[in-house]
Fold:
Amino acid sequence: MWNTFRIAARNLLRYKRRTFLTVGLIALGTVFVLVFMAVAGSFKDMMIRQMTDSFIGHLQIHRRGYLAAIDNLPLHMNMNAKQMGMVEKALAEIPEIESYSPRIKFGGAFSNFEQTTNIRVNGVIPEKEFATCPLLPGRITEGDKYGRLLERGKILVPELLAKGLGVKPGDTVVLVATNKDGSVNGKTFLVGGVLESATGPGGRDGYIHMEDARELLRMGDPEVSEVAIRVRDFSMLDRLAQDIEAKFPSMPNMPGKSMLEVSTWEKLSPFSSIARMIDALALFIRVILVAIVLVSIMNVMVMAVYERIREIGTMAAMGTLPGKILSLFITEGLLIGILGGLAGWLLSGIIVVALRLAQIRFSFGRQENLLLVPSWDFLQWCAIFLVVMVVAVLASLQPAWKASRMEPIDALGHV
Amino acid sequence: MGVVRAQDLVKTYGEGDARVEAIKGVDFTIQEAEFVAFAGPSGSGKTTLLNLVGCLDRPTGGKLLVAGQDVSRLSWRQRARFRGENIGFVFQNFNLIAVLTAFENVEYPLCMVKSVPPERRRQKVLELLEAVGMMEHKDRRPDQLSGGQKQRVAIARALVTEPKLVLADEPTANLDKETSRTIIGLMKRLKESTGTAFVFSTHDTRLLGEVDRIFTLEDGRLNGKINSQGGEHVEHL
Structure:
């Protein structure tokens, strides 16, 4: 094996410029893939984390049909106390659940006594909400971030609305809402803080204490519109969603469909389409890398076989078995792949470090001043390296096979 | 018995109207430690005959025994294995592997064809390089060697596996007069010391003057077996 490796390495050095160009091309392709994955992947992860940790949560539970009508925030489709009891029991049985936060969601009118506008409000239990969406306090631009900001009688006002109506922490405002029976009620609140806007559904909602929400909506029973859930392992979302849903009873007239449905963040946020697009782009770039490696190595190996036909004939005449000749040329292709992959790794590492040091900031949707922090996933980088190796071997296979099957007498006579 | 024994050996190429008979029923025997040449004009079939004896090609008819083995029945892979075990080759253009040093070229059959342990390999290679007078240049690559030096390395490479037979196709064609003489002398000495039979295909009168026997070929037929010591071969050339 060592002899095969030694001869293969020497043969690569025989045509230094050609080898250098091929290795460079593969390295360039690898850099494109790895840097794209580092930048786009970290952007995607950051956006997902921003949304899930600041307002959506990892999973949400709703009464079946609520999501289809979520734009209207239908109070009559809230979960009742019995259903909420089922949810709490189910969540308590699953150790992977880190926290959960019940919410009452409703739409209403917001007034500063001079102007009135529409608002979507979440009634929450502050400690549960902050545990489930730990980035929520970070969105409070004005006011006391970690103090008693959501004690009863206070409201967190979305940034755009606060600017539009000119309200600031400490101001008194009025919320007016219609309950599910159709009667209208109002309640005054003190502005506890102003919330930075976030991209996605719920990114421009206001927050009040759940008891205030129940009082405003004159709820006799403790109803809940949705339950946001935070899990310990983000990669297990789909399985956990199924596990939770399996614990709920089926609809009476729809066997197999539970009366409560569990949705992952992907179903709740349009950003999932962007995330899928980023994944598709990454796949596309990987396909381009495969094509680059395949074409460049195959080209080099075809040339190598053609230029060394007499040498192959000599080796075969001396009794070198076809398998040895095959492995010699495959090793050459593999070595080019290894060198290209390693060079790509090294360059990508340098570029990623440089990008991190450059502290590049960008805006996305309503969010500004986001810091781009490209990151490397060692396993993914290893997978790309492995792909380069496998493609290098596949690209060498045909020329190597041709070399190994040459009749020595024909090869020796080649001019 | 002989190292090579050919009986009514036939080799044809093509079919139908394009059929060409390159070798037309040839009989001969080559003994161990013999120095033998196939001679004849271009196209007479001497290279074809050498290829058959070297198991690089398969006869169309007749029987060919090399080292006691009927090689006409061997498969492609078996022939490769057989060549590695029993036959050494010396080529007109030397055919050294360009990326390997003289030492590594001689070592090649021992590590890539046979699996000889490294220490034994080294000992054997040095022994052969010493025998062909290439110890000083053992670390040089082919492009740093003269034609004569390359041919010495090629001879060492052919002998390193201790074959029963070395086949040399025009081994002196690309060498000057003086170098040719040295190379012929070297092969003769090695034939004596190793007991290996050397079979040449050649036009070179200097080489023909040194062989034990000459088989003259004309139009695929063997015209005669001449003992070079009598000088009769000159008439046939």
In short: The helical segments of chain B are 46-53, 76-86, 102-113, 118-131, 147-159, 177-194, 205-208, 233-236. Confidence is low (pLDDT under 50) at residues 228-237 of chain B. The longest strand of chain B covers residues 20-30. The CA atoms of residues 37 and 200 of chain B lie 4 Å apart.
